[in-house]
Design a protein that fits this description.
CATH class of chain B: Mainly Alpha
Number of helices of chain A: 15
Number of helices of chain B: 3
Shape of chain A: elongated
Biased composition (Basic and acidic residues) (chain A): 274-283, 319-351
Order of helices and strands of chain B: HHH
Radius of gyration of chain B: 20 Å
Pfam family, one (chain A): Oxidored_q3
CATH topology of the largest domain in chain A: Four Helix Bundle (Hemerythrin (Met), subunit A)
Oligomer: heterodimer
CATH architecture of the largest domain in chain A: Up-down Bundle
Low-confidence stretches of chain B: none
Helix content of chain B: 55-70%
Radius of gyration of chain A: 57 Å
Number of domains of chain A: 3
CATH class of the largest domain in chain A: Mainly Alpha
Low-confidence stretches of chain A: 298-337, 342-351
Strand content of chain A: under 5%
Keywords (chain A): Cell membrane, Membrane, NAD, Quinone, Transmembrane, Transmembrane helix
Strand content of chain B: under 5%
Number of strands of chain A: 0
Mean pLDDT of chain A: 75
Order of helices and strands of chain A: HHHHHHHHHHHHHHH
Structural class of chain A: mainly alpha
Helix content of chain A: over 70%
CATH architecture of chain B: Orthogonal Bundle
Largest sheet of chain B: none
Distance between the termini of chain B: 54 Å
Protein name (chain A): NADH-quinone oxidoreductase subunit J
Number of strands of chain B: 0
Shape of chain B: elongated
Distance between the termini of chain A: 129 Å
Number of domains of chain B: 1
Subcellular location (chain A): Cell membrane
Chain lengths: 351, 124
């Protein structure tokens, strides 16, 4: 009884005991963890017997990959966490067959080896195993790699139900695709119907629009009809009420101010409202003529004349030409009106 | 080292695997039992390499049975068996998961071998 024997017995006891728990535990996940223990103990046995590389490959592949895969499958199939009732068949036939197998194998091997003692071989290094694998066993190695590849492809194909699926014979055969030639007459008829419907809709819309236009014309026609206003009457009206109608209103700029800003650039409306100082008039290049024209009152008066007659043209030329005309004609009423605004403002302020 | 110890351990593990394959109804547990059996075979291979092959020092080299005079071919066989077990468990779990997707169950007693797949609706 050497140290190796003691190690072998201890590891073997662990392996067999956890293996028994693997096949008898009613918890699925616990069975997987007992399998880890059993495989680890077997790796220890390999180490004792000098197969170092096999032991680490066992730990890597079995414990690291296979058991993890099994536990993944346990979780993917929604196995219960607790003990499962209907996990096992009746134990007796399986126990009889298992015990018979174990007893037969044990008897055979024990009878073959008796209590013979072998000396442990020197531990095999990975270098020697590698030389063997790629020397004497290179053909099985390659075949095994092809087998692994085919197992990979097979697992992928099995996992996808749409690959290689046979059609259901019970289901009716799918109808053949319609022939475009047979379809064409129907399609053409449908397109013609659609085109006719669209043309009818367009005609309806056009008719409605024409009716609207006619109604609007009929409604608008009498309006421009009223007799042209008497020019004399209008002029009298302007003379009497023009100043009142065109008085500056608080809060909205007089039309003249807008006009004035167009006439002379660089002069703001606010400046123009203030009383004109002679100095500033002299400063300008053409003060004598343009300053009086600036005084927007003139422009207002001019607007009184022209405003109703013709709507003010957008061009700038007539605007420039107007003040010169309008200044002598309407100067007095505008000047008379001009002081009113500051006076009124002052009064309101004084109050 | 007494050679009978690893052999008996391996035979006991194999017997446990047989018992598990026959006893369990869950397909994943059956796969675990199969892993136990493959592990027992690995153990026998490694033990034979450590005991029998180690004593064959004076035997004439045969081209088919003894290709190289290095006593490590048992370990290489064990490596090959590990690879085979990995491939087996991969394909086996693919089958089990596909069956679960079709039938929502992994009980191998109720696998209808006379049924065809298209009689069941794919629900996954």
């Amino acid at each position: 009884m050497t140290v190796a024997d003691a190690l072998l017995l201890a590891l073997g006891a662990i392996a067999v005991g956890s293996g028994a728990l693997v096949v008898t535990s009613s918890h699925l996940v616990r069975a997987g963890l007992y399998l880890v223990v059993s495989l680890g103990a077997t790796a220890g046995l390999y180490l004792v017997m000098g197969a170092e590389l096999v032991a680490w490959v066992q730990v890597l592949v079995y414990v690291g990959a296979v058991v993890v895969l099994l536990l993944f499958a346990v979780m993917l199939t929604r196995a219960p966490i607790g003990p499962s009732r209907d996990l096992d068949r009746p134990a007796l036939p399986a126990a009889i067959i298992g015990a018979g197998t174990g007893f037969g194998l044990t008897a055979l091997l024990a009878d073959a080896f008796r209590w013979t003692e072998f000396e442990l071989p020197p531990p095999g290094t990975a270098q020697r195993v590698g030389e063997q694998v790629f020397g004497a066993w290179v053909l099985p190695f390659e075949v095994l790699s092809i087998l692994l590849l085919s197992a990979l492809v097979g697992a992928i194909v099995l996992s996808r139900p749409d690959l290689g699926a046979r059609p259901d014979p019970a289901a009716p055969a799918p109808a053949p695709p319609p022939d475009p030639v047979d379809e064409s007459a129907e399609v053409v008829a449908r397109l013609e119907r659609i085109a006719a419907r669209q043309a009818a809709a367009q005609a309806r819309v056009r008719q409605a629009h024409a009716d609207e236009l006619a109604a609007a014309a009929a409604a608008n026609a009498p309006e421009p009809a009223p007799e042209p206003a008497d020019p004399m009457h209008r002029q009298a009206h302007d003379v009497i009420f023009g100043a009142h109608e065109n008085r500056p209103r608080v809060g909205e700029p007089a039309e003249a101010e807008v006009l004035d800003s167009r006439i002379i650039r660089g002069e703001s409306v606010v400046e123009r409202d203030e009383p004109i100082e002679p100095k500033r008039a002299i400063e300008g290049a053409r003060p004598a003529r343009s300053r009086p024209a600036i005084e927007g009152d003139v422009v207002e008066g001019e607007l009184v004349e022209d405003g109703p007659a013709n709507s003010r043209p957008a061009g700038s030329k007539p605007v420039e030409s107007r003040p010169v005309e309008g200044k002598p004609a309407e100067g007095k009423p505008a000047e008379g009106k001009r002081p009113e605004l500051p006076a009124g403002d002052d009064e309101s302020k004084e109050r | 080292m007494h050679a009978v110890i690893p052999y008996v351990i391996a035979s006991l593990l194999f017997a446990l695997g047989v018992y598990g394959v026959l006893r369990r109804r869950n397909a994943i547990m059956v796969l675990m039992a199969v892993e136990l059996m493959l592990n027992a075979i690995n153990l026998i291979l490694v033990a034979a390499d450590a005991t029998v092959r180690a004593t064959l020092t004076g035997v004439q080299a045969e081209s088919w049975a003894y290709p190289v005079p290095e006593p490590k071919s048992g370990a290489i066989f064990a490596l090959f068996v590990i690879v085979l077990a990995a491939a087996e468990v991969g394909v086996g779990l693919a089958i089990v998961l596909q069956y679960y997707r079709l039938h929502r169950d992994v009980v191998i007693d109720e696998v209808g071998l006379d049924q065809h797949d298209h009689e069941k609706q794919v629900t996954g």
